[in-house]
Amino acid sequence: MRIRLRYLARVNPATPEFDRLPDDAEVSFLPLEAVWPGNKLDVDRLRPKDQVSVGYTRFREGDILVPKITPTFQADRTVIATGLSDGIGAGTTELHVVRVGPSADRSYVRYLLSSKPFLDEGEASMTGVAGQKRVPDDCLRDLIVPVTDAHQQRAIADYLDTETARIDALIEKKRRMVELLDERRQFLTTAVITRGLNPTVALRPTGIDWLPLVPSHWKVVRLKYLATATIGLTYSPNDIVSEGEGGTLVLRAGNITDFAISLDNNVFVTTPIPHSLRLRGGEILMCARNGSPRLIGKSAVVPRTLAGSTWGAFMVVLRSRFNSFLPWIFGSSMFSQQIGLFATATINQLTSATLTNMAIPFPPEQEREEIVRYLNERSAQMDEAVVRLEQQAQLLAEYRGALITAAVIGELDIPGAAA
User: How confident is the model at residue 281 (pLDDT cuts 50, 70, 90)?
Assistant: First the structure.
């Protein structure tokens, strides 16, 4: 027999325990960015009850939290609320709350809400405008529960706890290997652009803390002698139009990913663009200001295909005839150390004057070409390894999803779960 979830759990129920707390009691507070599966759930934020009593979703220990807005819903960040202060929490209104009754197993229902049929149905049932679509609560209430016996549900959940933990550990290893490769890339880049390819070359002191030694025949020059820096376009929200409405693409910090230009979450504007703010391709685009200090200094070379587009006021474009060498400078820890002197938690910006006054190790032309060629080759090898690891992690994630789906609908032969 199959029944709907509404008969085993309540969706978005009242939480009278919240009302019984004194006004000055602190409750766990969950914005959407704190809601992650398993032990990644961040319950460290606390808020006084009287600050979150209106306009927030209430829940209690053991409730299942289901993000309802795109794209968080599709990312399957459903989690069981645990570790809440006094067992009570409040959070974003972008959460559905599922409170499982005594006739069902909470962990099984949580896995059911991560199964592909539910995720597909939820996405298909979303309502709202693009970018702001939400899963209605009836989609949860009407979800068919394939296995209704609580003991069978518990056996399935125990099996999935073990198997998904094993798969998650494998995925984490793949991701850690990607991180190590990225660290290795930066270490190698820094070593080569500060010492060159000859380990026996004589060195000389520079008198600069972040660049104490360089090969004795190298120069140390200010970036302003190698490149010009231009801050980007200022525009208002009224200038923004949809893609295809004749606007100009504006590159922003979000368009820089892993030292490459990513064309996700694009912005187009109808503002007149001066010739000096039109990209030709081949320039270096860098984040000069952002809410997060770690994004300051992130850079990428603009591809020729984006000629004619522009860049935002929080960005800077560097034009130079040394654009094959400079990206390796900007990808080094030597450069990020200089950035750290200016882009602090209180300033969070890098002016064009500050940037172009930074000290850069500068080898002779032939050596620069050899360095660029060597780093291009080694980086390409690392890129191939990263792609393989990311593909393996993706396949493991897909297998995990398929395993959850097969288990919760009763297709697997699990000890203790037989009808």
Answer: very high
* CB 356 within 8 Å of CB 304: no
Tens digits of residue pLDDT in 14-71: 999 999 999 889 999 999 999 999 888 999 999 999 999 999 999 999 999 999 999 9
CA atoms in the 13 A half-sphere facing the CB of 166: 7
What element of type H or E holds 377?
Answer: helix 365-408
CATH 3.90.220.20 is the classification of domain 219-362: yes
- Report d(CA 11, CA 3) in Å as an integer: 15
Q: Quick: pLDDT tens for 98-129.
A: 999 999 999 999 999 999 999 999 999 999 87
Q: Which two tokens stand for residue 55?
A: 């306009």
Q: CB of 358 within 8 A of CB of 316?
A: no
Domain with CATH 3.90.220.20 in the chain: 3-145, 219-362
- Domain covering 3-145 assigned CATH 3.40.630.30 in the classification: no
